[in-house]
Write a structure and sequence with these properties.
Blueprint: H1 3-13, E1 34-41, E2 51-58, E3 61-66, E4 71-74, H2 81-87, E5 90-93, H3 105-118
Antiparallel strand pairs: 1-2, 1-5, 2-3, 3-4
């Protein structure tokens, strides 16, 4: 039996471990619960030109930390986390190297500047 066939049969019999894939359509939907991502935001959501910011949320409450400009923003009656998520031009999940405390200002300022400079136009 080929490796693929063995893997397929084992996976099918263990159907409980399957999870839906994030499709292009589902990428516009804010993941449920809470999370931390870097978002590429453009004016008027950020000052100056577009750049990476740190975005964290719990349900519809959120905080955008713009380390490059040294400012932060939270939800208000006109804006919720889902709206910010949909308006992002790009997203990077904060895991691995990016799973750092938000208080590590030096790391975040350096990293977000680096990512902004390296982003293809």
């Amino acid at each position: 039996m080929s490796g693929w066939r063995e893997m397929s049969q084992n996976s099918i019999s263990d159907a409980g471990s399957w999870k839906p894939m994030r499709t292009e359509h589902s990428a516009d939907k804010l993941p449920a619960g809470r999370g931390r991502y870097l978002l590429w935001l453009e004016p008027p959501l950020v000052s100056g030109s577009g750049h990476w910011v740190h975005f964290s949320w719990v349900e519809e409450s959120f905080c955008i930390r713009d380390y490059i400009n040294g400012v932060s923003r939270r939800q208000d009656p006109k804006t919720d986390a889902s709206e910010i998520w949909r308006k992002a031009k790009d997203r990077i999940h904060c895991r691995g190297e990016l799973h750092k405390p938000v208080q590590d200002f030096e790391f975040w300022k350096r990293k977000l500047k680096e990512l902004t400079e390296d982003r293809p136009l």
